[in-house]
User: Fold these one by one.
Assistant:
Number 1:
Amino acid sequence: MLTLKCPYCGVDADETDLHAGGEAHLTREGPGASDDAFEDYLFMRENPKGVHFERWRHAYGCGKWFLAARCTTTLQVFGTYPAQTLEPPQDIKDAISAQRPGWSWGNFK
């Protein structure tokens, strides 16, 4: 079972207490965006086998959204961090690099 630590309330919550919110760190396109950019925002998502950054909501806890770095094949969690963070914290990127040398995802290495 997947267990994530909420960075806000500090609770180790299992997946039944959480709600998945899809891919993290998306560039949200507004009203002035081109049709192609808006189409990419709506439909084009990373779907890697391996390290992935995701949005989660602590639905049956504090109710706040947060971000998590985890492996989609092993459910290994590299860390969680607040939703307002623009990129994964360095300690999480270092933890991923230590176990998965040469990994990259989007603009993050």
Note: The chain has one domain: 3-95.
Number 2:
Amino acid sequence: MAATIYGIKNCDTMKKARAWLDQHGVAYEFHDYKAAGIDRERLGGWIKQLGWEVLLNRAGTTFRALPDAEKQDLDGPKALALMLAQPSMIKRPVLEDGDRLIVGFKPEIYAAEFSK
């Protein structure tokens, strides 16, 4: 079964991650969650496995542009709703390979994970 990499097509980090996968012969499917969205069940599963704090991209322009009231008192349900409404708030890439989830891209982490 091929891995699935989730993100946004034009994101520089996504481009680097996809190039790494291509160069290392890792089969994957690409899911652009800005174009295709992300379903509540999948995102909820990621949150359950990793925590919403890992997935919510607080450094991105989309999150920073939110009114202060929406940024306050963040918890799992509120973060889930924000990420569903605006998937560009999800850190990227999210690489799903079976039970394994990797958030973000660092070549050394991909190398370690795909050498197993």
Note: The mean pLDDT is 93.
Number 3:
Amino acid sequence: MAEHIKHKLMKASEIPDFVDDVIKTGCNICAVGHDKYLIGEADLPPLEQERVWRKLAKIDEIYGDRDFLKLEIVSYLRSIGRYLDVGADGSE
């Protein structure tokens, strides 16, 4: 099966808008340490999860591929206080 190829690449200048749009869906987005970030929707009821997944898919379509901006997104999230630092044993 052919893999879906994203043609649009997100610009670094779009990171604040991307983060705001994710937050508006009701999902938590935060940096984990200095090299990862996550978008959390697992604690939503099933019907709400479906609605949020559709919104996140639309956000993905709007902004395009952002994998290459991961560290910049993490840095931005840390700069606005949306981060968790994890210890060597996995605790906060």
Note: The mean pLDDT is 88.
Number 4:
Amino acid sequence: MAFTIGSAGGHGVVRAEGELDVGNAPALREAVGTALDQHATLVIDLTAVTFMDSVTLGVLIGAYNRTRETGGGLAVACTDDRVRRVFRITGLDKVFALYDTVEAAAAAL
């Protein structure tokens, strides 16, 4: 899986597609780190993700902590009910702001 790094509204954007799991978590971590080296605020675009495991959540928590330490922010764009369910089950829907689109997430930052 390849991750796309871009920007929207002056914020970094990391876009993922397909399934996120232990096998591609290191690549996601690297993409997120690269984006955060360039932007203090970040949108994680999961709108094309169909599965996400707990290792991926660890990567997102690491990104969230990094943005908080540097005074930045992080928002997640996610539409798939199965992926949103992972956030709800773990209680991380209270930590991460979840939006339906990258544009809405970027506007909220």
Note: The longest strand covers residues 41-52.
